[in-house]
Design brief:
Protein name: M50 family metallopeptidase
Order of helices and strands: HEEEEHHHEEHHHHEEHHHHHH
Distance between the termini: 93 Å
Mean pLDDT: 91
Helix content: 55-70%
Organism: Streptomyces drozdowiczii
Structural class: alpha+beta
Radius of gyration: 26 Å
Shape: elongated
Low-confidence stretches: none
Number of domains: 3
Largest sheet: 4 strands, antiparallel
Keywords: Membrane, Transmembrane, Transmembrane helix
Number of helices: 14
Oligomer: single chain
Strand content: 5-15%
Length: 372
């Protein structure tokens, strides 16, 4: 054998690779028939998927293990030997993507344009450094995020939701009264717009609290409506499920917390009071705005929360792909893992049920308002 080749192979087997600092690895995600992990470079923002076998190795690249160290654990986990070719191919892939320590750093991702779109619809970035802005807000508001404060607020929100459900008829009648009062309706609309603005910032502050990153804060408009948006990045890579759920649900939680003073005021007024009727209308509109974000349909926050709970990526598109495959190629659809088949079928049924329920509720509410 060639001595130079032998020395190269010996050096490769003795190599102790380590991931570059800050490389992000997501928890396992079901995507179609496969379970994948997402890897992301902290500077360039480039991301790609790897399978469970590659993740098993990548997650152990800490600069202390060689191929001979990892091979026994790999064989025990997957029941097959770790081929040297597989190992070299994986390291080559990580090296070309600058994910190994010592690899040349790629250029940073180009910042998004400050403005997109035109006069009638588009976006505009409002702050130069969204992450720093939300970090400042987080430092100020951090005492309010303690469980000793948030848990009682959550309990108050749940009690309020139950009370509103029990008085649905009164809330619908109050909404009719609110619509017939232009000045009160304008005030309610302003409050709801303000609530949506804080909804977006709540996502960013929650992300800061749990170690996520806010990449952009801006204004999105589609004439005649304009709303703030806050883009949270990297929180999909947080290992704690609770953190991902809190970040996704923070906006809806804040929307409902903002309604608590009005709910208390409404509950203290006697039936028949004109102010109580107007407050009932505000509470209904605010509750619909807040709670509708928890419906697990894209692109709502509830859809993201369901994806986190189920450990899935692109749940709605993959459900559509699976259903289409069942029609066009039943054998290929049957090759999906059992969990994937059950999950995508259940979500399709739930999707239809939620859409029909929302349509029925909207028609019922409209009928009540028009005939009230």
């Amino acid at each position: 054998m060639n001595p130079a080749t032998d020395r190269a192979r010996a050096a490769a087997r003795a190599y102790r690779p380590a991931l570059g600092p800050g490389v992000l690895i997501s928890p396992p995600l079901l995507r179609g028939p496969r379970t994948v992990h997402l890897l992301k470079h902290p500077v360039s923002g480039a991301a790609f998927e790897v399978g469970p076998k590659e993740h098993f190795l990548i997650s152990r690249l800490d600069g202390t293990r060689t191929l001979d160290d990892l091979a026994p654990a790999y064989a025990e986990r997957f029941g097959r030997r770790l081929a040297e070719e597989h190992w070299n191919r994986l390291l080559g892939l990580l090296g070309t993507r600058s994910l190994l320590a010592g690899a040349p750093e790629p250029p940073p991702a180009a910042p998004p344009p400050a403005r997109t779109g035109g006069r009638w619809h588009g976006t505009r970035r409002l702050v130069a450094d969204a992450d720093r802005t939300t970090a400042r807000l987080h430092r100020v508001l951090r005492p309010l995020l303690h469980p000793a404060i948030q848990l009682p607020l959550l309990a108050a929100v749940l009690v309020t939701v139950v009370a509103l459900v029990l008085h649905t008829g009164e809330l619908l009648d109050g909404t009719g009264e609110l619509i017939r009062e232009p000045a009160a309706l304008a005030g309610a609309a302003l409050f709801l717009w303000f609530s949506i603005t804080l909804h977006e910032l709540a996502h960013g502050i929650a992300a800061q609290h749990y170690g996520g990153t806010v990449t952009e804060i801006g204004l999105r408009w589609r004439f005649p409506v304009a709303m703030l948006y806050c883009t949270v990045d990297n929180y999909l890579f947080l290992p704690a499920l609770r953190a991902r759920l809190v970040i996704a649900g923070a906006g809806a939680h804040l929307n409902m917390v903002l309604l608590l003073p009005f709910a208390l005021w409404w509950s203290l007024l006697p039936p028949g009071d004109p102010t109580r009727a107007l407050l009932a209308g505000l509470l209904l509109l605010g509750a619909v705005q807040g709670l509708s974000n928890l419906v697990p349909l894209p692109p709502l926050d509830g859809y993201r929360m369901l994806g986190h709970l189920l450990g899935t990526a692109r749940l709605a598109p993959e459900t559509r792909a699976y259903l289409a495959l069942r029609r066009s190629d039943p054998d290929a659809a049957a090759a999906y893992p059992r969990r994937a088949r059950r999950l995508y079928t259940a979500y399709a049924a739930g999707f239809v049920a939620l859409v029909l329920l929302a349509a029925a509720g909207t028609c019922g509410a409209a009928y009540r308002l028009l005939t009230g």
